[in-house]
Specification:
By secondary structure, this protein is mostly beta strands. Helices cover 6% and strands 39% of the residues. Strands 12-13-14-15-30-24-23-18-21 form a nine-stranded antiparallel sheet, with no helix packed on it. A five-stranded antiparallel sheet has the order 20-19-22-25-28, with no helix packed on it. The protein is globular and about 60 Å long.
């Protein structure tokens, strides 16, 4: 039997599993957590947030994250809509790093580099639903995953969990945890909701106002790999210390924003960013325990057919991915993202939504 025929049979088998709604014996589902007129839908495929429903200043409920109508579409995409990102978020230059004298070669999935954990990173695996409470005083869902030694080239077994919970009033809490079981390994988790506070089908976010509590970024080379420098951004197009519209200077940064910001605060739970959409009145305030946030304006979302058939275009959303320093494994001057055996990684994010009616 030729290799082409074997490859075809493997593809057909995978498609059969996808159509059946299960992979490796784990059932794939959609789970809603709800508190009044505030609700979030999550799938255990990639531990993704697939919808966030919120009222606007007139009481109209809208879904404020981009996404698809079916789980199968999430399986076939490379844009990471709503996905949990790991074992290491962002890019690792050259798809390799050295740890304790051993060179680890990863699976590249963006040119010669690795992004968001590789082609079979945490965004493209089925997570176990460990706990699920749909409503009541504290609606929440906890998803868990065992990442095996050698997965995508990373060393050591890691037990990972994420808990999404709704809290009063209009608060979404995200708690990431990961324990290294038997080898030192880099762990840097985040997730990738594409936010549009006007509603996922409301067009671009260029008129939405953003404030990012950071005075520095980590500059990158032509492949978007950090150079190792940490640069001041005052009076540059990257400066969002004061609230300003996303589109106010976006034409001065090539195709849009795609940079890691180093947060100013040294507090454990630190202010990250505030986003405001004047038309809907919705406000999103983000706090996190991570030292950085990656600001991305959906530059490569081009003619993407999303929910309800709406076609998403560049700048139709923004992402604010809280994280550790990117490519820290290859830059000794960056704070380490290595977790030693028996130690636990933790990262908390709190989204607080509100309304401005004026």
């Amino acid at each position: 039997m030729s290799s082409k025929v074997i490859s075809l049979l493997i593809c057909l088998f995978i498609l059969h599993l996808l159509a059946a709604g299960s992979v490796a014996g784990c059932k794939i589902g959609i789970y809603e957590i709800k508190k009044g007129d505030f609700s979030v839908k999550i799938t255990n495929y990639g531990a993704r947030i697939i919808s966030v429903f919120l009222p606007n200043k007139h009481g109209k409920i809208d879904d404020v994250v981009l996404g698809y109508d079916t789980i199968k579409e999430y399986m076939n995409e490379t844009r990471y809509f709503g996905a949990l990102l790991g074992r290491v978020v962002n890019r690792i230059g050259g798809a390799q790093f050295t740890l304790n004298g051993t060179v680890y070669k990863l699976v590249p999935n963006e040119g010669n580099n690795t992004i968001h954990g590789g082609p079979k990173g945490f965004s493209f695996v089925v997570w176990k639903v460990s706990e699920y409470v749909q409503d009541g005083p504290c609606p929440h869902i906890t998803l868990t995953y065992h990442s095996a030694d050698g997965e995508e080239g990373f060393p050591g077994d890691v037990l990972v969990s994420v808990t999404y919970a709704l809290k009063d009033p209009y608060k979404l809490s995200v708690e990431f945890k990961a324990k290294a079981l038997n080898k030192a390994t880099p762990i840097n988790l985040s997730h990738h909701p594409y936010w549009n506070l006007g509603g996922h089908n409301s067009g671009d976010v260029l008129s939405q106002v953003v404030q990012i509590f950071a005075s520095h970024i980590t500059p990158v080379d032509e492949q978007l790999i950090p150079t190792g420098k940490i640069s001041l951004i005052k009076n540059t197009p990257y400066d969002f210390l004061k609230p300003r519209k996303v589109g106010s200077r976006i034409d001065k940064v090539q195709i849009g924003y795609d940079r890691n910001y180093v947060l100013d605060s040294n507090e454990k739970m630190k202010p990250v960013a505030v986003v405001y959409d004047q038309k809907s009145g919705r406000v999103m305030d983000i706090q996190a325990t991570a030292p950085c946030v990656h600001f991305y304006t959906a530059n490569w979302i081009i003619n993407v057919k999303g929910k309800g058939g709406f076609v998403y275009q560049p700048h139709s959303a923004l992402s604010l991915e809280t994280q550790g320093y990117p490519d820290a494994v290859n830059h000794p001057n960056f704070p380490s993202t290595i977790v030693n055996p028996g130690k636990t990684y933790a990262h908390s994010v709190l989204y607080t939504f509100s309304i401005k009616k004026y």
